[in-house]
Amino acid sequence: MPPDTPAQRPTPRAPEVAHAAPARKLATGRRGPADPVKSLMHRHRELCERAVDPLEIAAGLEAHGVTDRTAARYRHRDVFSLAEELFARVPAVAGEPVDASCTPARDIETRAAWSLRALLPGAACLATFVALRLTEGVLDGGARLAIGTGGGLLALMGLALALRTGPLCADGRSSGAAGLFGCWLLGYVLYGDALLHQVLSGGPEGPWDITPAPLLGLAVAVAPAAWCAHLFSVHAHRKLNGSRALEEFAAGVRPLLFAAVAFFLCVLGGLLYLAGFGIGAGGSQVGAAALGVLLLLARLLTVHGFPEPAATGLAAACAVEAAAPALVLAGRLPGLDALARPVDALVAAAGTGAVPAVACGAAALGLLTTATVALSRASAHTAA
To answer: Does position 270 have pLDDT exceeding 60, yes or no?
Structure first.
């Protein structure tokens, strides 16, 4: 037989080595992978593959609860740095080619198109009021009612077209309930003050006067609202491109939101004044201004992926406006006169226009608070 080789020769330490090898493998398994980003990459692989830039990955990670503090556990200073590594390490899925026709001229044409569509509701309302003014004393009540109804339908069609494209387009996120709430609020602008006045006077006692001036101002304000939404989105994306941390982006986008809302409120105030000057006084200017801000904030939240709080804010304003005449009517029942006292006191102090002002103003303040938090997130400014 050949002599024992060193590998064949048993040694006293062989059992120890045999036990040590599995123990060393087990210890290595306990330490976990040397690459902490790999597990995160696998969990969010689809997000990383579909992303067109690291910013989209950063926004997606933030939407899944990854913060700058979480990024530190993956050996990165912030979510943006972590997203850059994920974007570099995960190959992109072959998608549609970049449209080479997206030139500055094409962009200008697109903006001009949705700007013209945003002017349609105001143009329809203005044409209707001019037609009614010119036919006053010439046509009978039935014909004038037909003109008013037709003009209102055209204005609603123009509004629907304006909300279907451009910066106010919600891509199907808006619910039907939100549309009904918006129609109620706009209807109250026309009829609400006169109806509440009749109810407080012991009625209602039949047809009541309408207050078209605030509605005209709101209709014309659709175009400024579209431009405010567009400018907010553009500057928010620029902040996103220049930020290196989520907190930095949030601190930079909040003033943009406040500036957009304040600018729209100033423009809307001027349009409401001009509408009242041209058509005649009537209706609550403050209430209409509060409604305009409420509708703008609700649309911004819906466009950026938060339709639920938007619908809740609109529903709250509708509930307050509907509760005012209902409480007055309920107060006529024996023993329930206390129900009407809050409405009586509010109207006695500031007139019937105080009801929509309080209702829409409180709802707008609530949506502004919500938007300050929701729209300061990076994930609110990326494509779904």
So the answer is: yes
Q: What is the pLDDT of residues 68-96, one digit of tens each?
A: 777 777 777 777 777 777 777 766 544 44
The pairs formed by 261-266 with CB atoms below 8 angstroms and a separation of 24 or more are: 261/228, 261/293, 261/296, 261/297, 261/368, 263/228, 264/221, 264/224, 264/225, 264/228, 264/292, 264/293, 264/296, 265/289, 265/292, 265/293
> Helix-strand-coil percent breakdown of the chain, rounded to 5?
75, 0, 25
Tokens of 248: 């930095």
DSSP 96-159: PPP-TT--HHHHHHHHHHHHHHHHHHHHHHHHHHHHHHHTTTTS-HHHHHHHHHHHHHHHHHHH
Per residue in 19-64, pLDDT (tens digit) is: 433 433 333 333 444 567 777 777 777 777 776 667 677 777 777 7
Length of the chain, please? 384
The encoded tokens of residue 71 equal 């990024």
Average pLDDT, integer, range 245-264? 88
Q: Which two tokens stand for residue 54?
A: 């690291």
The whole-number average pLDDT for the span 366-373 is 95
Cα–Cα nearest to 359, from 372, 375, 342, 376: 342
